[in-house]
Request: fold
Amino acid sequence: MNIKFIKKGDIAVIGVIILIAAAFMLWSNSKSEAVQAVITVDGEVIETVDLGSVKEKITVIPATSPRVVITAENGKIRFESAECEDKLCVACGDLSKHGDTAVCLPSKTVITVTGSDVDAVVY
Reply:
């Protein structure tokens, strides 16, 4: 009883599937859309940061009370620190994808990532 589970043809099919998957991943990652972060305080836009062109660390400190510090670096933006009690905005972490949002309610500061990319799920 010499049973082989994988034959030469099976290996060729698996290899072709892996190549197609790798090509699709490279193609989907090569579509670099313009992703921007819009920072608003009390409904008014105070700054727009192009996340695709950020090479060095950018720091934005809006004139709010409580004070918040926003940093953008390597295509990501985040609340670096906040003087509010709960610090939920800091816990949101890095924002980099279209639709990502972080809010500091006490300081009325909102970071929204916008772009023209289309996700697999459209609302």
